[in-house]
Amino acid sequence: MVVPLLVKDLRKDYLVKGKVTSALRGLSLTALRPMILSILGRNGSGKTTFVKIATGQLIPGSGIVEIFGHNVISSPASVKGIVSLVPQECRPWGHMTPWEHIYHYQRILGNSREGAKDRVQFISEMLHIGSFMDTEAVNLSGGQRQLIVVGMSLSAEADIYFLDEPTIGLDVITRKNVWEGIRYFRKLGKTIVLTTHYLDEASALSDEIAVVSEGRLLAQGTLQQLQNMLDYNTRIRIPAGFAKGSLEPYGKVVSDSQYEILYTDEKKVEEIILSAGLLKTRIEIGPVGLDDVFISLVGGGIED
Amino acid sequence: MKTSIIRDIRAWQSFTMLNGLIPIFRRPLALVALLSTPLSFLFFVDIFSHGTQLLVGSIGGLIFTVINAATMLQSDLLFGKIDLKFQQMIATTGISPLVYVMGMATGDIVFILPGAIFFLAVIVYLTPVTILDVALIIFAAFLTWVFFSLFSYMISRKVREMREIWPISVIFGIVFAVIPPIYYSLSSIPPPVQYFAYLVPTTFAALIIKDAVANSLASLPVPLLVYFVETVLMVIFATRISDWRQQTI
Question: The pTM is what?
Answer without folding.
Answer: 0.89
